[in-house]
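Sequence in, structure out.
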Amino acid sequence: MGQWGRRLATHTVLLTGSAVMLLPLFWMLTNSLKTYRETLIAPPTWFPAIPQWSNYLQAWAAQPLFGRYFFNSFFVAFVTVLGEVLLAILAAYAFSRMAFTGKSLLFIVLLSTMMIPGEVLLVPNFITLTKLNWVNTYWALIIPWIASAFSIFLLRQHFLQIPRELQEAALLDGAGHVRFLVQVMLPLSRAPIATVALLKFVGSWNSFLWPLIVTNSPGMRTVPPGLMSLMQDEGPQYQIWMAAAAMALAPVLVVFLAAQKQFLESVARTGLKG
């Protein structure tokens, strides 16, 4: 097989994989535009006979607190992203550029926390929040998730790739750690920082189990638990469910498309050395 044949095979595999991954999204969008009767047809149809754009208005009106759910999700995601990016930058800089006793051991302990399943921490975290009287507050939705071992690891690996000659030159010019971090490291690290922010936003926005556990009033719910309440209230109105799910997915797609260039650059350039 020549070079042309290998390229054809590679592109065929990639296009097939892309089609498989996009099929659920396509099915959700087409079903969000069908009538209720069309969603029950067997065998199913791929496209609606007449697109029912009013399904989106019905989905929004079906849950009066939808606006509140979106506000909660945006607020929690924004604060969580801000907190994690700040803490990850500071911790990654310390692990990559500063010398202190027990640094290697502490970093190993930090990485070992990535092997602990998140479900194991649900009960201890909930007990802690109960003792702090944070249940059903924004603190409960934000504080447990503003630190991430993976984000620290990712930024540390990138910081290690920045030449130490830059730091030495900055020190000769009288710059301290803070000035070097702000004026040199951060401008060179936009791609991995954007990746950390993107992953945290998607994770925070899509979080379902934790908000469901730590909130007990409808006004404190985020979008995923709100979708569950919509499904319970509306019954088997599949077209309404799909329209609501499409609206919930839209912010994630917008954020990803906005940060796509930085995300791909980070994946291409961030290594795993050190």
